[in-house]
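Q: What residues go here?
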């Protein structure tokens, strides 16, 4: 049986401070490193042996992948990085506190910015300090492809060429693949894999560093999906992600 495990990065320093992050390159917090270790332990106990891993260009996902594979003693496997797996670009919201933004603009507006399918936050200026146009990481990416903000729809449109041409076809040769990425980039992949509607996807909130396993038959059709870990604890973690955008 073929398996792809989707893993959101562990808690980042900006998750801890409850700030919109998007393409900002923040590190894992201490708790985030511990969460990545726990993910590695869970995957090891469940006897996973990955053939290949994929991650984004952002430190929090790369470090989560490295820590997880290290715990599993599988840090020798081939890893491919792509900017296409980056988090949804949060435009001018990047760096703002989510609760404070909800106090200013209302819970409903922040929910629209965070979880609507096709509405993007206000865009950054091209020469803003936070712009990918001035970040050497993206110097080889054609400028037409670089976002200054994104809706989930646009995030999915940028991920799909990589998913369809690289990750999913790799399942033909590989039995087990690990993808370490971000809350919204993974929500986009999950929407595609499970055929979730534009409306229903707004209710999915991914907890940090909880392995989400997708099983495929020999024809590469999805047969089953499940999280590794305690279902009650995972439910609470998902609720707490949903509540991050509330004024409280
Ligand atoms: O800020 C972000 O980049 C994302 C993930 O941390 O947040 P949200 O859950 O609000 O989409």
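A:
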């Amino acid at each position: 049986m073929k398996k792809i495990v989707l893993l959101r990065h562990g808690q980042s320093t900006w998750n801890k401070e409850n700030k919109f992050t998007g393409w900002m390159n923040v590190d894992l917090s201490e708790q985030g490193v511990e969460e990545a270790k726990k993910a590695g332990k869970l995957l090891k106990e469940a006897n996973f042996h990955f053939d290949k891993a994929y991650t984004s260009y952002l430190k929090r996902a790369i470090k989560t992948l490295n820590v997880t594979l290290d715990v599993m003693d599988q840090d020798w496997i081939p890893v491919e990085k792509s900017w296409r797996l980056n988090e949804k670009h949060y435009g001018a919201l990047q760096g703002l506190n989510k609760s404070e933004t909800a106090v200013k603009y209302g819970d409903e507006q922040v929910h629209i910015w965070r979880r609507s399918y096709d509405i993007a936050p206000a865009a950054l200026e091209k020469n803003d300090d936070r712009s990918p146009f001035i970040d050497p990481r993206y110097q080889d990416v054609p400028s037409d492809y670089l976002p200054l903000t994104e809706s989930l729809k646009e995030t999915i449109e940028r991920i799909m060429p990589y998913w369809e041409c690289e990750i999913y076809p790799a399942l033909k040769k590989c039995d087990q693949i690990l993808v370490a990425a971000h809350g919204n980039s993974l929500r986009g992949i999950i929407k595609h894999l499970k055929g979730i509607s534009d409306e229903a996807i707004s209710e999915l909130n991914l907890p940090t560093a909880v392995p989400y396993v997708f099983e495929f038959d020999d024809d590469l059709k999805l047969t089953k999906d499940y999280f590794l870990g305690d279902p009650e604890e995972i439910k609470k973690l998902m609720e707490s992600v949903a509540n991050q955008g509330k004024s409280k």
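A: Context that may help when evaluating the design: The two ends are 45 Å apart (CA to CA). Residues 152-170 form the longest helix (19 residues).
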